[in-house]
Amino acid sequence: MEAGAARLKPAGRRDTLSRRSPAARRADGVFRGGLTALAGLVLVLLAFFFVFLVVKARPALAHQGVLSFVTSNDWNPSKDVFGAWPLLAGTLITSATALVIGVPVAVATALFITEISPPRLRQPLTILVELLAAVPSVVYGLWGVFVLIPKLRGTEQSFSDTLHFLPFIGGNVAGPNYFIAGLLLAIMILPIVSAISREVIATVPAEHKEAALAVGATRWEMIRIAVLPYSRSGITGAALLGLGRAVGETIAVVLVIGNSPVVGKQLFDQGYSLAAVIANEFGEAANDPLHAGALIAAGLLLFILTLAINGVARGLVIRAEGRQGTRLPPPAVTAAALNDPEAATS
Amino acid sequence: MSTPSSAATLLAPVSGRRRTTDLIMRGLLGLGTVIALIPLVLVIYYLFSRGLKGIGSGFFTTDPTGNFLGDPGGVKSAIIGTLEIVGLASVIAIPLGIGVALYLVEFGKKTVFAQIVRYLVDVMTGVPSIVFGLFVYITLVTTKFGGASFTGYKGSFALALLMLPVVTRSAEVVLGLVPEALREAALALGVPRWKVTLKIVLPTALPGLITGSLLAVARGMGETAPLLFTAATVNGTTYNLGQRMNSLPAQIYADISQPNNDIVNRAWAAALTLVVLILVITLIARVAARRSRVS
Question: From A328, B94, B243, B254, which residue has the greatest number of CB atoms within 10 Å?
Answer without folding.
Answer: A328
